[in-house]
């Protein structure tokens, strides 16, 4: 094969999606790497992700402030959905540890029987705790200093929080299943893609769908709702109702609809 034919073959291969077996093997390998990380390294990475994902909320609050309290609801929904991907781009491209990625990814070595369920819960617990603590800190900073600096208004915290908590827990749970499902698919598609531009597009597309549909994400949503608590717009009880429902829904969506189904049909 001459050089031109080799180059054409490489370009053609790059343009094609990876085989299913390769995607699954790469996801298992990436997940095993996380299981083998030190607890402090995992916790710090998760804490960083909890802070970074908060920039989605910051941009949403900034844009909502610019649109104004009396803005058309449809316009607000579209603009805020377009703000939603920012924090995910920071976290995923920066390779920080986000809980809703691990709900799907970390299940695969368990299904392959390379790690135990206790290790899975330990990994989930560390990442979840780190994400929440980072998010709490971001909420504290943004609620106390955002209005003071002047880039967003205090009423924004309550408005955004109410859009998440004004539902029965069963509705939040079902909504969170869709969010977890989409986040699991996001991880699968990112492994399938071969270049950074494709990854950016995939992250933007899927997280915009989550934002536009109003699906409940337990980490970004924690920041949004906890900010509402700190501002006095909603109660702590609202926060716990949201957080419990969204967390279990995200886990089910990612672990069952992505990990279990993908693993089963690829290995069948």
UniProtKB/TrEMBL annotation:
GO terms for molecular function: formate transmembrane transporter activity. It holds the Pfam family Form_Nir_trans. GO terms for cellular component: plasma membrane. The chain crosses the membrane at residues 40-66, 78-99, 120-147, 167-189, 201-222, 242-261. Gene3D superfamilies: Glycerol uptake facilitator protein. It is a multi-pass membrane protein. It is found in: Membrane. The keyword Membrane applies. This is Membrane protein. The keyword Transferase does not apply. Keywords: Membrane, Transmembrane, Transmembrane helix.
């Amino acid at each position: 094969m001459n050089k031109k034919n080799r180059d054409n073959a490489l370009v053609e291969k790059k343009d094609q999606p990876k085989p299913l077996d390769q995607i699954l093997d790469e996801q298992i390998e990436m997940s095993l790497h996380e299981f083998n990380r030190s607890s402090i390294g995992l916790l710090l990475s998760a804490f960083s992700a909890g802070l970074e994902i908060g920039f989605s909320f910051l941009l949403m609050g900034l844009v909502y402030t610019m649109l104004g309290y009396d803005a058309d609801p449809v316009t607000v929904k579209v603009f805020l959905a377009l703000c939603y991907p920012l924090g995910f781009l920071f976290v995923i491209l920066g390779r920080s540890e986000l809980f809703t990625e691990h709900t799907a990814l970390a299940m695969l070595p368990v299904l392959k029987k390379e790690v135990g369920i206790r290790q899975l819960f330990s990994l989930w617990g560390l990442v979840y705790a780190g994400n929440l603590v980072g998010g709490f800190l971001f909420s504290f900073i943004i609620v106390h200093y955002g209005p003071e600096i002047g880039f967003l208004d205090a009423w924004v915290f309550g408005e955004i929080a109410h859009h998440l908590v004004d539902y029965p827990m069963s509705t939040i749970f079902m909504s969170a299943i869709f969010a977890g499902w989409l986040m699991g698919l996001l991880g699968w598609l990112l492994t399938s893609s071969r270049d950074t531009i494709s990854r950016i597009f995939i992250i933007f597309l899927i997280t915009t769908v989550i934002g536009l549909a109003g699906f409940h994400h337990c980490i970004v949503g924690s920041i949004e709702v906890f900010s509402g608590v700190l501002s006095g717009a909603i109660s702590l009880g609202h926060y716990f109702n949201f957080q419990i429902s969204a967390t279990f829904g995200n886990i089910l969506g990612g672990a069952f609809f992505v990990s279990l189904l993908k693993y089963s049909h690829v290995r069948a």
